[in-house]
Amino acid sequence: MTSIWAASALDWWQEAGVDTIVGETARDWLNPKAKAAPAEAAPAPALLPDTLDAFRDWLAASAEIPFAAPSVRRDLPAGDPDSGLMVMVDMPSPEGGLLAGEAGALFDRMLVAIGRSRETIYLAPLSPIRTPTGTIDAASAARLAEIARHHIGLAAPRTLLLFGDICGKALLNTPVAAARGAWHEIDTPKGAIKTLVTIKPEKLNTNALKKLAWADLQMLMEELG
């Protein structure tokens, strides 16, 4: 009699959808196809500061900048943002600072050749933090380009000079070899900025490359008058 009752009970449980005696996870028997709750979306990046002074402070301290860490060094923009000429490098030099060492000395001579100095340009990095490898991955470059467009818009230079492949690819999606020798425009929140791309001083190790860079500087001088 007991076996008949047990069999009947098992039949009833089976019809009711009970397919295990003990389970570790709760089951919604009335809605077996219920979907899992969607994962929460990642928080959107905070809005970037809308003045150049506030933006500089943000660059100095924000944890939202790629490669940011509590002890990492940051090199900030320098020079005169009202000069009409903004120069952007990919990242600080290995020695620290923007365009330091031998490359910095060559850059200073290039500026003299076009009648400028570091005090009469606005020099800024795409990334204020130098990476250990001296390279920037695609995802970080995309975020840095977004930040740089905002920065360029705040500075609103008459012309922008980009040094090197990293800057050219991030902001124009074009390497130096294909981009140099012609004017481009970079869209910013404050409007389009006329832009020239050239070889960065660290790469000017032959007379042929220096000749190409000088041709680009002549274009820049003509535009600046």
Q: What do you see in this structure?
A:
- The structure is a single chain.
- The chain has seven helices and six strands, in the order ααββαβαβααββα.
- With 225 residues, it is α/β, with parallel strands linked by helices.
- It has a single domain, classed as 3-Layer(aba) Sandwich (Uracil-DNA Glycosylase, subunit E), CATH 3.40.470.
- It has a six-stranded mixed beta sheet with strand order 1-3-2-4-6-5.
- A hairpin with a 2-residue loop joins strand 5 and strand 6.
- The longest helix is centred in the middle third of the chain and has 18 residues.
- The N terminus is likely disordered.
End-to-end span in angstroms?
Answer: 107 Å
The third-level CATH topology is Uracil-DNA Glycosylase, subunit E
The number of distinct β-strands equals 6
Work out the helix count: 7
> For this structure, what is the CATH homologous superfamily?
Uracil-DNA glycosylase-like domain
Low-confidence parts, pLDDT < 50 over ≥5 residues? 1-13
Radius of gyration based on Cα positions: 29 Å
